[in-house]
């Protein structure tokens, strides 16, 4: 009978440790999936924006055919945005895209007939809506990354998280945050 108490204590410790590992692993998986989903949302919105840009370019081209460099910069920024891999590349592409969109809207401001075009106004509205969705998706992604990184770094999770294959994720940070603080606008 004397050996029963130490055995019960050891079994209880093993069960407690097992439950802790199970709960920690499941919560880390949940956070990882949430971050992956958020990143997917960002890429979906960036793809939507990239799909709108050729239509916007065509609308503006008819009025400002001599602004070739602007159109080339927008096209280049679009391609860079579509091929970005991971938050760091996407952030750099985001900076270039914002600059390119500002330049195309600046060109459009010089053409009152273009600003009155229903097609152009609809494309502009959709683009602004998409920019808002990208910004919201970035916030959701960064919140998920914050939760995941915190869970991985806190003790005692930091002792087992890396062994279970969980690594910290990068935030979606843009080097020129003032450039993307607001979606591009055209003032009439």
From TrEMBL:
Pfam families: LemA. The chain crosses the membrane at residues 6-25. Keywords: Membrane, Transmembrane, Transmembrane helix. InterPro entries: LemA-like_dom_sf (IPR023353), MamQ_LemA (IPR007156). This is LemA family protein. Coiled coil: none annotated. The keyword Transmembrane applies. It is found in: Membrane. It is a single-pass membrane protein.
């Amino acid at each position: 009978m004397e050996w029963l108490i130490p055995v019960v204590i050891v079994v209880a410790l093993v069960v407690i440790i097992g439950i802790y590992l199970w709960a920690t692993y499941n919560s880390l998986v949940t956070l990882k999936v949430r971050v992956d989903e958020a990143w997917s949302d960002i890429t979906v919105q960036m793809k939507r924006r990239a799909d709108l840009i050729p239509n916007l370019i065509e609308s503006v081209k008819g009025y400002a055919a001599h602004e070739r460099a602007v159109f080339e910069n927008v096209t280049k920024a679009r391609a860079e945005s579509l091929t970005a891999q991971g938050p760091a590349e996407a952030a750099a592409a985001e900076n270039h895209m914002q600059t390119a969109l500002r330049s195309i809207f600046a060109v459009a401001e010089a053409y009152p007939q273009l600003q009155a075009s229903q097609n152009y106004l609809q494309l502009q509205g959709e683009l602004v809506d998409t920019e808002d969705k990208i910004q919201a998706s970035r916030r959701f992604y960064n919140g998920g990354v914050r939760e995941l990184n915190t869970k991985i770094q806190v003790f005692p999770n930091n002792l087992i998280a890396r062994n279970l294959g969980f690594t910290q994720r990068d935030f979606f940070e843009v080097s020129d945050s003032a450039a993307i603080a607001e979606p591009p606008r055209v003032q009439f």
